[in-house]
Request: fold
Amino acid sequence: MAEGHRRDVCSYSDLVTARSTSLFRTAYLMVGDHQLAQDLLQEALVKTLIAWPRLRNHHNVEAYTRRIIVTTSISWRRRRSFHERPTGVLPERVEPDRAETVVTHDAVIAALLSVPPRQRAAIVLRYYEDLTEAQTAEAMGCAVGTVKSQVAAGLAKLRGRLAIEEAIEDKEPTP
Reply:
């Protein structure tokens, strides 16, 4: 090993030995978690080691490492995963049963297909395609008032059809 390289390793080791506690405190104050602070300090020390041959003044190396700690912690905070924390108990996921969602979707589509074509078109354009009443009227080639009446009539039929299907399901025995 070259004498300069050996001297660099010794100087770096002296920095780590003498200033790790202080640098760890800075890292901890930046992230607020002991394990993350250890990771942050480790990353900062590795970056410092890599930059060591380029550093002209080794008296300011602690300030340089602190700067790395600060900039690295800021970039960590920008990551979405930074705000995720491990937990001892996973919370129950409150989501509707996926099978129930599919069944509901199929029932709505079946009911929609039972609505007359112009009413269906008005509902699809207004609510599925999210068009305004004016845009829907333009797409259907009719007046805005016609769109309003077609949507109202179509929704009434949809609600009635879905209510009938729900009533039928309620009467069926469960397996």
